[in-house]
Amino acid sequence: MVDEGQVLSIAHTIQLAVAPVFLLAGIGSMLGVLTNRLARVIDKARKLEEQTPAPADPAMPDIAYEAQLRVLARRARYLQVAIGSCVSCALLVALVVVTLFISAVLDLNAFAVVAFLFIAAMLAFITGLLFFMREIHLGLIHLRIGPRPRV
Fold this sequence. Notes:
Blueprint: H1 4-51, H2 63-105, H3 111-141
C-alpha cells in the first residue's frame, strides 16, 4: 500500500523540479545559439582559406589573412568555452533534479547538496554568458563593412 505522505512528498518534489526543468529548456536554447555561432565562425574561416590565394613569396605570408584567421580561431575558442560551460550548467541542473528525487524517495535532507549544485550551475552559466559576450565583442571590433581597399 502506498503511503499518502510519500505521494505528497513526490508531488512536492515534482513541483520543485519544474523550475530547473524550465531552466534546462533555456540552457538548451542558449546552446543552440552558441553552436550556430560556432558553425558560422568555422564556415567563415573555411571560406577565407579558400578565397585567399597563396602568397607570391612563401617566406612572406599575407599578414591580413593570418590576422583574420587568428581572430576567428580566438572566437572559436571563446565559443568552445561558452558551450562547455553551458553544457556543464545543464548537467549540474540535471543533477539538482536527480538529487531532489533521490532525497524525496530516501527521505534525506539534501538541502546543502542541492544548493551547492544549483550555485555551481549558475556559476557555469555565468561563465558561459561572459565568454559569449567576449566572443560577440571580438567579432564586433573586427567587423569590416564595405568594399575591401584595392592594393
